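Researcher: We're teaching a course module on how sequence relates to structure. For the next exercise, students receive a sequence and then see the predicted structure as tokens, so they can try to spot secondary structure elements on their own. Here is the exercise chain.
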Amino acid sequence: MRRLIVLLPGDGIGPEVVEAGRRVLDAVAARHGLALAYETHAIGGAAFDAHGDPLPEATLAACRRADAIVLGAVGGPKWNAAAPSLRPEQGLLRLRAALGLYANLRPVRPLPALASLCPLKPERVAGVDLVVVRELTGGIYFGKRTRDAERATDECAYTVVEIERIVRRAAKLAQQRSGRLVSVDKANVLETSRLWRDVATRVVRDEFPSVALEHVLVDAMAMYLIARPRDFDVVVTENLFGDILTDEAAVLAGSLGLLPSASLGDDGPGLFEPIHGSAPDIAGRGVANPYGTILSVAMLLRHALKHEAAASDVERAVESAIEAGVRTPDIAGKAGTIEATNAVIDRLEAPVLARTG
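Model: And here is the predicted structure for the students to work with:
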């Protein structure tokens, strides 16, 4: 049976990196005997230009029937003047809400071959292997907004149920790893964070007694991610904090272009995308880093298609390509998007894919 993968190229460099992801999916599918089918649909600014809506109904319908979704990026200065409800980013927010994609997994594992690109001392980042579990459908991004000539407001709201489910997801992941979980909040100031801390404490205490839970304030966490990143394994936090902290954590890896993510719900298709933006300044130049999208494809294979061997093969192929010096300009190289993608595919097509590390 063919598994349906919906491709959402989006804006800026999105079409270039999504095409890279599709080509890698084809290569790994051939290696492992997977049967895949694809549909491509518009989202973001491209959808607004073509259909007057950043999330057309046809796109949403296709995503609902998919086995998994690969997204490039949305947004850009071209659409800054659009009404708030029609901005490209609203298409992505609406898609997450419609599909119930409340858990965003963002792994951060710097590669030794790129240690020189991190501004921190190599010994500071050696051995870093953490996952941020970001709540994705609540908080300030989904709250009520107001604005007039004198004032603007953005409401941050969370329910007990929203906090329970994301903490459970993170605690289960912690059980599978080191048994350590850090919950990040701002409980010294915000009521939503006080609720978050109370609920997180109860869920872990009552349902995951083997997991060691630590609470850290977000401003302290921003410092600790740079000062002692090896001390963390699984980190759970709310929407806005997770967005900011994971962009900061990209410094540990050497580039935003390297980090993948998976947005998951309790059922239905997951959405897999690099954490970088649309980078309109380099769109169409063929120099965008495809590795973040390719590693997101590995997460798709692991979480959506439940094929660990295929996921591991993709990850090893990326590591091998980077170790061999196939690097795009953002990671101190001269390779283009296609060259980097080809390097991964060449390794997937080799009879034996050597393990790295």
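Model: If you want an answer key for the exercise: The CA atoms of residues 11 and 74 lie 5 Å apart. The chain has a mean pLDDT of 96.
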